[in-house]
Amino acid sequence: xxxxxxxxxxxxxxxxxxxxxxxxxxxxxxxxxxxxxxxxxxxxxxxxxxxxxxxxxxxxxxxxxxxxxxxxxxxxxxxxxxxxxxxxxxxxxxxxxxxxxxxxxxxxxxxxxxxxxxxxxxxxxxxxxxxxxxxxxx
Length: 138
Description:
Number of strands: 5
CATH architecture: 3-Layer(aba) Sandwich
CATH topology: Rossmann fold
Helix content: 25-40%
Largest sheet: 5 strands, parallel
Distance between the termini: 14 Å
Shape: globular
């Protein structure tokens, strides 16, 4: 049985290529036989990027109903680390992919609490085939 995979896509104003990355994750799920989920924590519910991201999810769910998606909206401003930690707390996956613009800006992230899971920090996942290759190798 394939390991379960969770994609955490925090949505903040500085995050780029959100729709493209969401589309890539759904394309990846076509080729991956295991369970996939997408968690999108945000503290900017009124941001147009959030609306576009949610629209991309709804459109992709038509052809990929097997992918579990969750958008978590906060009413107060949170740091990127807090958004990611919220996603980590809700993640069901054995492997967790955190999608960021700049992975090096997460030095305060407390990943040690999740040592039983394989956590990958990535920048711009835009190639589903490369993603499949990297996540399925042991």
